[in-house]
From TrEMBL:
Keywords: Flavoprotein, FMN, Monooxygenase, Oxidoreductase
InterPro entries: Aldolase_TIM, NMO
Species annotation: Penicillium subrubescens
Name of the protein in question: Nitronate monooxygenase
Pfam families: NMO (PF03060)
Example of a GO MF term: nitronate monooxygenase activity
Length: 358
């Protein structure tokens, strides 16, 4: 076992408005906006907005992001200092061209507190992006922390060497895209914690856990495995502030037995013609009509056609509901504030239960 000299409260130091345990929402592209992220920050967590994957000079995603961040600063009022906007932006990085020139300028302009990078074609591709952010940061007027989501120990090692501040360790219970080959948090997280603890950067890097966490019990388990804080995606979809359609929230609430109700595969992207992720990634979603038809022998062409026809008619029964195995535990839509408060309370109860047993 590695030495237990964990960095003391780095996250609290970096994000002073936050309460403990440290909770962030995942930057789920298309399902996160100022309202959701602002509510998470106001409730004592760190709110993230999905910033996109297109970084060209005419990128609509970047233009929208710019507008949203102006709106977010106005909405957050006094929580936002002139120096930092207490929100993070997540980017999908498998086509990084233009990131340095176009995305960094917007992040700097709004002085966002955190940048989150995920899903590069090769881990090495993050190096120039991180360097570009650090270069601007070194001018001294923008204090930003860099988060990189990793699903393997090798990816964590590379990100650590590239100088990240926060490793978001993503286990295979996670909803949405993830490493096709990986492990659950139960074994991945302690191995990454040991890696960090044995490195020269042990006292300057924080670890967050993502994948299957939906309540205080999962939160305490993740902290026990070596995390400094938690990230939730699926749980935040079923909140009143999340911009996801109601039908998606209802599917999450209705699902039980998460390991059976969801499946991790590249098929979800094939059915909805979004199979653009590099081959080391797949995605977990609720098993739906398209997947069942495919299992019964229907061809991809037929399924894609039926998907497109349904979409054109505004019928969302075939929509992919990206979700993690935690769906079985989620049974109602709550406000972000209620969710964060309840996790903090449940975490105390879970700790007391653990203490009784050891
Ligand atoms: C609907 C949905 C969309 C997601 N979109 C993104 C994304 O755009 N970028 C990203 O880095 N991760 C994305 N993820 C994965 C999350 O970062 C995170 O790893 C995951 O939500 C954690 O597992 P959980 O959903 O069980 O909480 C998404 C997850 C979901 C459920």
């Amino acid at each position: 076992m590695a030495p237990t000299s964990f960095p003391e409260r780095l996250l609290k130091q970096w994000f002073p408005h936050t309460t403990t345990p440290f909770i962030a929402n995942a930057p789920m592209l298309g399902f996160t906006d100022c309202r959701l992220a602002g509510a998470v920050t106001r409730a004592g967590g760190l709110g993230f907005i999905g910033g996109g994957f297109e970084f060209g000079p005419e990128s609509t995603q970047l233009k929208n992001l710019d507008t949203r961040l102006t709106q977010a600063r106005a909405e957050l009022g006094t929580i936002a200092s002139t120096r930092t906007l207490p929100l993070g932006i997540g980017f999908i990085t498998f086509t990084p061209t233009g990131f340095e020139e176009n995305a960094v300028a917007i992040l700097e302009k709004h002085r966002v507190a955190a940048v989150w990078l995920s899903f590069p074609k090769s881990d090495a591709d993050h190096q120039p992006l991180i360097e570009a952010i650090r270069k601007v940061q070194s001018k001294g007027h923008w204090d930003v922390k860099i988060f990189v989501q990793v699903g393997t120990v090798q990816a964590a090692k590379e990100a650590l060497e590239q100088g990240v501040d926060v490793l978001v360790v993503q286990g295979v219970d996670a909803g949405g895209h993830q490493w096709a080959q990986g492990a659950s948090l139960m074994s991945l997280l302690p191995e990454v914690r040991d890696l960090v603890a044995n490195s020269a950067r042990a006292n300057e890097v924080a670890i967050m856990a993502a994948g299957g966490i939906v309540d205080g019990r999962g939160c305490v388990a993740a902290l026990g495995l070596g995390a400094d804080g938690i990230v939730m995606g699926t749980r935040f979809i079923a909140t009143s502030e999340c911009p996801a359609p109601l039908s998606m929230k209802e599917s999450i609430i209705a699902a039980t037995d998460g390991g059976v109700a969801t499946v991790k595969t590249t098929r979800h992207d094939i059915f909805q013609s979004t199979d653009v992720f590099p081959r080391q990634y797949d995605g977990r979603a609720i098993i739906g009509i398209s997947y069942n038809e495919s299992q019964s022998g229907a061809s991809d062409e037929d399924i894609i056609q039926r998907y497109n026809e349904a979409k054109e008619k505004g019928d969302d029964q075939r929509r992919t509901v990206w979700a993690g195995t935690g769906v079985g535990i989620i049974d109602k839509i709550v406000s972000v504030e209620e969710l964060i408060k309840s996790i903090q309370q449940e975490a105390n109860l879970a700790v007391a239960r653990v203490m009784e047993r050891i």
